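Sat 14:20. Reprocessing the chain from the morning session after the first attempt stalled halfway. Input below, unchanged.
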Amino acid sequence: MVKISTREKLADLEHEQWSHWVKYLIVERHDDKDRERWYCQARTDYKDLSKKEKDSDRVWADKVIKLISDKLRFVLSKHSVMRGSTKKTPKQIIKEVFS
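Finished this time. Tokens:
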């Protein structure tokens, strides 16, 4: 079995997000109004987006959180941290989560 690093899993998720967007651009017909709206969104800080726009970004953020949480749960259970019997420092565990 090939071990896939968390970084590679996150990169795969990022590609999935980008691919989803590109497929949307290719399949749908877009007019100048759409392009102007997207250009405006691209220039807008996240904190200034509408609730609907933020919710769209949150879908992808939730996927990242799930991926990291799943990996962290696995590493913690592997080292019995939840039962207090680990010999690794928190820094070592975090490093393992992202390996």
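The chain has a mean pLDDT of 81.
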